[in-house]
Design goal:
The complex is a heterodimer of chains A (123) and B (837). Chain A is an all-beta fold and 123 residues long. Chain A is built from no helices and eleven strands. With 837 residues, chain B is α/β, with parallel strands linked by helices. Chain B has a five-stranded parallel beta sheet with strand order 3-2-1-7-19. A five-stranded parallel beta sheet of chain B has the order 9-16-10-11-12. A five-stranded antiparallel beta sheet of chain B has the order 22-23-26-25-24, sandwiched between helices. In chain B, a hairpin with a 2-residue loop joins β5 and β6. The two termini of chain B are 43 Å apart. Classes of the chains: A mainly beta (123), B alpha/beta (837). At the A-B interface, β2, β6, β7 and β8 of A face α16 and α17 of B.
Chain lengths: 123, 837
């Protein structure tokens, strides 16, 4: 288990959070990232073989107020990759965190990418 | 302080119309205004007399019943069956029964009718019976056991029904009719002749124009019937079915106005000559007519209920048009079928002596309206003709085309479009085309929903085909494509996906998606199809759900094999088969709960639920539980949950079988079985039913001789009593039928459909299910048993499997890059235990 190596500056920086082996194909895992505002929980989704293989959005579910988004079912609805909250089943677009059932709710989407086998997030 | 007592409304009679009145009272809210008491003379609650003859072809009293005692109880209506009312004391405002006197503010007579027995000397002899009630049928069945021949006196509608019943009891059957033809009310001499030919071809002797003079001892049989021309007919059994007479004696005795030929006179509001008393159904005489069909009775019931409340719905007479299938022979009669009540009426006739079909149209003198019609041999013309008649639709230029055989110059059937909004679709429940359309506009999306909302086609069922056509048409015209696809990723129903998986041996979601998924999606699936396919794969192949190929398919509960609670923690429920647990194991549960700071609660399924477990603690908790001999309880799965039991014959004074032992065997056999929804069992050791087995998907109740099996019960939001499925089964039979039942359910149910809803939607109902499971009518019994055995043989405890695999345990990290627990899970304490803050 690797610790988050965060650059403690006031600007956003790329940081490594885990490796490919920590991810679960076609599902999500949760990770901590360090941000200028403090630590944050991020849900990382891995879709091997798809045009975009990695997505990261908030792990916090604003409807249940529990940190569970990474444990939802990943799928696609009307052409958009989504995750369904495991508690009350709202769908969030992986691309930008938009909730499909409630226009006013949007999770933060984080930039995420592989560098070799390492997973990097900009936070 | 007592609330003032509500006025008492008494209903005398619990036949079809009497019961319908009760339903109308409930629906229209009369139970808030009145205290309602219903008296029924028979032992049975209201039953379906229209389908009475099916009593001899396998239906029992329960399946003919129109309602349940629970329905009455739930609506606060007192039902007093087997208590005949003997008098009405209008001065005192009371009715009298052998058990006492009951005051009424309002009284409704729904006493119905009795079969008319012609005054023939000898008609009281043993073996001379009538055909009206279930008890009559029991008497006929008993008498038939020592008989080889039977005669029905009366060749009308009920007479032919009775003749069919005798035929069903393997008697050589004859029908004796006083009129020169069969069904003289409905058909003319040509139609009657055709009917005779058809019925004789079925082996039933038909004697028309015969008046029976007397019945005496026979020489070869028990009775000899002597006719007016001194000809004779010998028989062992005689059933009188020569018409009905109103049961108006109570009304007569208390001085209500009675018609010349019987019947309690009512007005349009169903009021008798005493405004406190109403009458409905076959006892009531409206406009000098008795209505001997169920539909007009229902309309009277509706009007009567309205009269008892605000009023507004009057009875305005009823159409006596009818279509029936008597001994497989279609007979239909619409309006003035004989043309003798319409001055200047003109007739069209079509007769095909080879195909044995006869049709007649009675048309108004200007040729524009249909005033009546008669059909023998083919009722497919009925619906269209009835619409022309009932809605006064202008006839085509050549009306004869309406009765010509299809394919000739025949006019096309009247499509649903041609019907006016006022067209009556279901006359039993008074449902018009406009009502059906309104229901669809209100959101009903299929036939079932329309039937549920309007009750259309739930009376005599005669309008079923018309209703379906109309509903399909209306849905289509609103652009509703009746799409049963499970979701956008598969254009298949769950059942179709199940068959594909089974037949093609597909073992993963990705293979199924590759071969059968909708290419217009990203092929990721969704939270609808993924768990459904996961369930199907598990039912068919039973691979661990935590295997890499299956893990992304599972709901979070299955993924982590625990039940997610609202704060993101989980509850843990180890299996306690049959609710039996040793003290040692009980101690372990307490110790684990203490160590991991868990809230504990006893569940409704006789187990212990440990709440508040953090994701990262689950493997350690399970390590300790497995060490102590526990296994997973599948409380998180759409699978067998629990088998609840009472303590049974080992301890209980009343128990007749070892219910705990049976519950444990059942639970161990079916544990781990994944299904469209969760499954619960109950096993009771005697009829006291302490395990509440009749509220379970599978209920087992011990008898002196074995086990009674109940199926498709449910608690929850919409409780449903399980239905008795088979009786006095051996252990082996019990397992065999449950194997078959569950596998058939798994094969054919929709996703997330409990056995109760599945059973209710199953075409053919309980009878069909019995045929498939008990009689193996589809020939799949062994296959189903084999499939179940495969699931049983491949069972492994999912938690044991997971904790022995480090790769699988990686999934139970709350965060992949830090062992820090989730700081947002905060607890407070209540009643000595923790709960989410």
């Amino acid at each position: 288990m690797s610790s988050a190596i965060a650059a403690k500056t006031m600007t956003q920086t790329w940081q490594t959070v885990c490796t490919r082996a920590d991810l679960v194909p076609y599902s999500g895992v949760a990770a901590w990232v360090e941000t200028p505002e403090g630590p944050a929980q991020v849900a990382i989704f891995y879709l091997p073989g798809h045009a975009q293989e990695l997505y990261a959005i908030d792990h916090h579910d604003p409807f249940s107020k529990a940190n569970v988004i990474a444990r939802g079912i990943v799928g696609d609805l009307k052409g958009q990759p989504v995750v369904a909250s495991p508690i009350y089943k709202q769908h969030f677009r992986l691309e930008d965190g938009q909730c499909l059932e409630d226009e006013s709710v949007q999770l933060r989407a984080w930039k995420v990418s592989f560098k070799g086998d390492e997973v990097w997030i900009e936070a | 302080m007592n609330t003032p007592a509500k006025p008492q409304l008494i209903v005398i009679g619990n036949g079809m119309v009497g019961h319908h009145l009760v339903e109308q009272l409930v629906e229209q809210g009369a139970t808030e205004r009145y205290t309602v008491i219903v008296f029924g003379e028979e032992r049975h609650l209201a039953y379906d007399r229209v389908h009475l003859s099916e009593y001899f072809s396998g239906r029992d009293a329960d399946s003919l019943a129109l309602s349940t005692a629970d329905y009455y109880a739930e609506n606060g209506i007192e039902l007093r069956l087997h208590e005949a009312v003997t008098a009405i004391d209008r001065e005192a405002g009371e009715i009298v029964t052998p058990k006492g006197r009951y005051p009424y503010a309002r009284l409704v007579l729904a006493t119905g009718s009795y079969p008319f027995v012609p005054p023939i000397p000898g008609n009281e002899r043993d073996g001379c019976l009538v055909y009206r009630t279930l008890e009559d049928l029991d008497a006929i069945r008993e008498a038939a056991e020592s008989a080889s021949t039977g005669v029905v006196v009366g060749g009308g509608l009920l007479g032919l029904e009775a003749a069919n019943a005798l035929r069903g009891l393997n008697l050589d059957t004859a029908v004796v009719e006083f009129a020169p033809r069969l069904m003289p009310m409905q058909v003319d001499s040509e139609g009657g002749e055709l009917l005779r030919e058809k019925i004789e071809a079925l082996g039933v002797q038909v004697l028309t124009g015969r008046a029976t003079q007397e019945i005496v001892d026979g020489e070869r049989s028990r009775h000899r019937m002597v006719f007016q021309d001194d000809k004779v007919l010998e028989t062992d059994l005689i059933v009188f079915s020569a018409g009905i007479r109103p049961r108006d004696e109570l009304a007569r005795d208390c001085g209500l106005e009675i018609g010349e030929r019987g019947g309690v006179v009512i007005d349009d509001n169903c009021l008798t000559s005493d405004p406190a008393i109403l009458a409905v159904g076959e006892v009531a005489l409206w406009n000098n007519s008795i209505f001997g069909l169920v539909a007009p009775g229902y309309q009277m019931a509706k009007a009567a209920a309205s009269t008892l409340l605000e009023g507004g719905t009057a009875f305005a007479g009823a159409d006596m048009s009818t279509k029936l299938k008597l001994m497989g022979v279609d007979v239909g009669s619409i309006g003035d079928a004989h043309g003798d009540r319409t001055p200047g009426a003109r007739m069209f006739r079509f007769l095909d002596p080879l195909k044995q079909q006869y049709r007649k149209l009675v048309v108004s003198s200007d040729g524009k309206r249909l005033v009546g019609a008669m059909l023998v041999g083919d009722n497919s013309y009925y619906d269209t003709l009835l619409q022309y008649y009932a809605n006064r639709i202008e006839l085509p230029e050549d009306p004869a085309a309406l009765i010509l055989p299809a394919g000739s110059e025949a006019a096309p059937a009247l499509g649903p479009d041609a019907l006016p909004a006022t067209a009556m679709i279901c006359s039993c429940h008074n449902v018009t085309k406009a009502d059906v359309c309104a229901t669809i506009d209100g959101g009903a999306v299929d036939l079932g929903a329309v039937k549920g909302e309007t009750k259309a086609s739930t009376g005599c069922g005669g309008c079923a085909a018309l209703l379906k056509t109309l509903v399909d048409h209306e849905l289509e015209s609103r652009g509703v494509e009746v799409d049963k696809s499970i979701c956008e990723h598969f254009h298949y129903t769950r059942q179709e996906l199940y068959d594909i998986v089974r037949v093609e041996g597909i073992k993963t979601f990705s293979e199924l998606m590759e071969k059968h998924g909708n290419p217009e999606t990203h092929k990721l699936g969704c939270d609808i199809c993924k768990p459904a396919v996961a369930s199907i794969l598990a039912s068919c192949f039973n691979e661990p759900i935590t295997d890499a190929a299956h893990i992304p398919l599972q709901d979070t509960n299955d993924t982590f094999m625990a039940n997610m609670q609202k704060n993101g923690t989980y509850s843990v429920v180890p299996r306690i088969a049959g609710g039996e647990i040793t003290p040692d194991k009980l101690v372990v549960l307490g110790q684990v709960a203490q160590k991991y700071n868990l809230y504990t609660k006893v569940t409704g399924g006789q187990r212990i639920d440990l709440f508040g477990a953090r994701l990262e603690d689950l493997p350690a908790i399970w390590g300790e539980l497995i060490e102590a001999g526990f296994e997973t309880g599948h409380a998180y799965g759409k699978s067998l949950r629990t088998v609840k039991s009472c303590v049974g014959s080992t301890w209980c004074r009343y128990g007749v079988q070892d219910s705990v032992g049976m519950a444990i065997r059942l639970e161990n056999r079916y544990k781990g079985l994944r299904a469209p929804h969760k499954i619960k069992f109950g096993v009771s050791g005697c009829t006291r039913e302490c395990a509440e087995a009749q509220s379970k998907d599978i209920g087992v109740i011990a008898t002196e001789n074995g086990w009674n099996l109940y199926v498709s019960g449910n608690g929850g939001m919409r409780p449903r009593h399980a239905e008795l499925f088979a009786t006095d089964l051996s252990d082996e039979e019990l397992f065999r039928y449950i194997d078959r039942f569950l596998m058939f359910y798994i094969r054919t149910a929709d996703r997330l459909q409990r056995t109760s809803v599945w059973r209710e939607n199953l075409e053919g109902g309980l009878d069909y299910l019995k045929e498939v499971i008990l009689e193996d009518s589809l020939g799949i019994g062994e296959e189903l048993e084999r499939q179940m055995q495969a699931v049983v043989d491949t069972y492994v405890c999912e938690w044991s499997n997971a904790i022995s695999d480090p790769e699988k345990l990686k999934r139970f990290r709350s965060f992949v890059n830090d062992a820090r627990p989730d700081p947002d899970i905060i607890y407070t304490t209540e009643r000595g235990q923790l709960r989410p803050a």
